[in-house]
Design goal:
heterodimer; A: about 170 residues; Four Helix Bundle (Hemerythrin (Met), subunit A); 6 helices; about 70% helix; B: about 500 residues; about 0% strand; globular
Chain lengths: ~170, ~500
């Protein structure tokens, strides 16, 4: 086993283990911290795929931004430690069977298909071509993403606002 | 870059809507100190102007070709659906002025959401790129979640919004997974590239998985069984104008995505207006199963409802099933029939919801027993409801009859006569619950002597605007033919 493989499977283990904890854990704060490990594992995956920009964005946005907010939310919520969340207790058996079936089908499909994989040689920096695509061919999706963010922001502000106006 | 600039001119309706969005956001902030009624009037006026301008700009012949480096197809399908979305939004806005649930509500966010979702529906209907399909669908979904939860002090509304978000997030996630598999199979995000790649080489079982996953995402949007669970609760919890909007706008856009994905992405047009599946998977069976299950379950469940909004929710599920028959036909006539149905459906379904809103204004209830004795209180409203319901039933000479006729004709043409028969049988079942509503309104005695109803001028105008197309549909067979003919002109980048 090469060093790269060791790191790869290590990242897989961290990701799967922490993801399992997120789903099965009973303590909301611990779950949120476990989610940090999962998302860092995903970033490691991107590194392995040669997607440097995506890996950086994953760490900055998900780990640095969204999860920090999530943790703030969890910690600022009153009496969060006493909260019993009901996960894993209902329909364990049907759930496990369904998940196992989906897993089996996916593995079968992934192994049976001749994927349209591109061999791009040694990975180089991706930020420049990405930037060119975003203001070139993918200009419209890029702009629409900003509309989506704007409306999500407005909606979030609206839903949590106190009714003050007469 | 030059392509983007050249595309802007043919992107006018969407640009107008985005301009109006910017204006209403600023206007809402600038008029914080005004009284509620005054700022409401201003915002609704501005929004109406924006929607009206977009409606006018979207009329006329589509330009053909694609916009923004093959992101949007500026073809007949988009050409017909753009004005339909603008019109739906205009009706929704006017409804919201008359809905009791929104009395005294702030309108700033509502009009901003309405403008955004209308533009996003247009993007959705035009998308010919997997990224665009996902992104526009997500924009529609996020805006819809917020619109459903608009009455944030109302528990039902909150619950509906939460259910909608949970179902929506799962469905779009599932769809996105399917799209990513499709990208892995074909190596392109462009729908026409997907078609070319699949035509060159069969994809095998992986494509079946892709189709199932994508059908989940689209099925959620059009509320097809078994992806419909959100529908009755969301329709009940949302304020009625929003319900009316959801039952027409996103459903139509969902069907547009379905046509684009299945007909442009994984089928090849033949010589005589028929389509043949590519990639080695015959997906016609999938659509047929969805159609039959959706129609039947929607109609049977609607029979049991005692709440008007739930009844209309199941009725809209059943209609989605009927429209799916057109999608199973695998022909240009099928596409034309779907779009014609969607256009007529706008008038009949929005009409029924308008009556629900007006009845709720005076009775304060959505339960069916609240409709008892309406014949004595307002014969006019009862007759209008009769017309909408007969149209929804598909009884001639009302417009709904032609909607169903085209769909069934497309099915027969495609040698799916038995499917058309299933559709007719379902229409017969549907007649039971529509007539039940009418019987309650016209025959059942109400509680004692109730005062006669008074309409505002706006109510009268809205009723007239919605009743007329349903009644005179028969006179405009030519216009319907033309709509169908334009919609069949799908962009075809071989």
């Amino acid at each position: 086993m090469t060093a790269a493989q060791v790191v790869f499977y290590g990242a897989c283990l961290v990701m799967l283990g922490s993801a399992l904890y997120v789903v099965l854990g009973r303590n909301l704060v611990h779950c949120a911290f476990a989610l940090v490990a999962t998302l860092v594992g995903v970033a490691a995956f991107y590194v392995f795929l040669g997607a440097d920009f995506l890996a950086g964005a994953q760490v900055l946005i998900y780990v640095g931004g969204i999860l920090t907010l999530l943790l703030f939310g969890v910690m600022l919520t009153n009496r969060i430690y006493d909260l019993k969340i009901s996960t894993g207790a209902v329909q364990v058996f049907p759930g496990a069977v369904a998940a196992g079936l989906v897993f089996a089908v996916l593995v079968w499909i992934i192994r049976s298909v001749d994927w349209n994989a591109m061999d791009t040689g040694a990975p180089g920096p991706t930020s420049e071509p990405l930037g060119k695509l975003l203001i070139g061919d993918y200009l419209l999706p890029f702009e629409i993403a900003s509309v989506l963010l704007l409306i999500a922001l407005m909606g979030a502000a609206m839903l949590v606002r106190r009714r003050t106006r007469p | 870059m030059s392509d983007a600039l050249a595309s802007l001119g043919r992107f006018l309706p969407e640009l107008l809507l985005m301009g109006a969005l910017a204006v209403v956001i600023v206007a809402d902030l600038a008029t914080q100190a005004w009284s509620l009624a005054r700022s409401r009037n201003l915002l609704v006026g501005l929004t109406l102007a924006g929607l009206g301008a977009a409606f006018v700009a979207s009329l006329g012949e589509p330009g053909g070709g694609s916009l923004f480096a093959s992101m949007i197809a500026d073809d007949g399908l988009l050409g017909v659906l753009r004005p339909l979305f603008a019109l739906t939004a205009i009706f929704t806005l006017l409804f919201s002025l008359r809905a009791k649930e929104l009395d005294g509500a702030r309108m700033g966010e509502m009009v901003a959401l309405l403008l955004t979702v209308t533009a996003a529906l247009m993007w959705m209907a035009g998308s010919v790129n997997l990224v665009m399909i996902y992104l526009s669908l997500e924009t529609v979904s996020v805006a819809s979640y917020i619109m459903v939860g608009y009455r944030s002090s109302d528990r039902l509304s909150n619950e509906a919004s939460l259910k909608y978000i949970l179902f929506g997030a799962v469905s779009t996630g599932v769809m996105l997974f399917g799209l990513s598999l499709l990208y892995g199979l074909t190596g392109t995000l462009d729908l026409y590239g997907v078609r070319a790649a699949l035509a060159a080489e069969d994809a095998g079982p992986a494509l079946i998985l892709v189709l199932l996953l994508v059908a989940g995402g689209i099925g959620f949007k059009i509320a097809a069984v078994p992806f419909h669970f959100w529908c009755p609760d969301v329709y009940t919890g949302a304020s009625t104008p929003v319900t009316a909007f959801l039952s027409v706008g996103p459903k139509a856009a969902g069907f547009a995505v379905l046509i684009r994905f299945f007909y442009s992405g994984i089928a090849q047009p033949g010589a005589d207006g028929t389509f043949a599946a590519v990639g080695g998977v015959d997906w016609q069976g999938l659509i047929i199963v969805l159609a039959v299950v959706t129609m039947t379950l929607g109609n049977v469940a609607a029979l049991l409802q005692t709440n008007m909004k739930r009844l209309l929710a199941y009725s809209s599920i059943a209609h989605a099933g009927t429209i799916l028959i057109g999608a199973a036909a695998l022909s240009s006539e099928g596409i034309g029939a779907i779009v014609t149905y969607l256009v007529i459906y706008l008038f009949m379904n929005l009409g029924a919801f308008l009556v629900v809103i007006l009845v709720h204004r005076v009775t304060g209830t959505f339960e069916l027993e609240g409709y008892a004795g309406f014949w004595k209180r307002s014969p006019l409203l009862t007759v209008a409801m009769g017309i909408f319901l007969f149209s929804l039933m598909g009884i001639p000479p009302f417009a709904g009859f032609f909607a169903k006729l085209y769909v069934f004709a497309a099915a027969v043409e495609a040698e799916l006569g038995w499917l058309a028969v299933v559709g007719v049988l379902n229409s017969a079942v549907a007649a039971f619950y529509y007539i039940k509503v009418l019987r309650i309104m016209a025959v059942d005695p109400g509680d004692g002597e109730l005062p006669a109803l008074r309409f505002s001028r706006l109510d009268g105008a809205l009723l007239l605007a919605l009743v007329t197309p349903n009644v005179v549909g028969i006179l405009f067979g030519g216009a319907l033919e033309q709509i169908s003919e334009i919609a069949q002109r799908l962009l075809d980048l071989a």
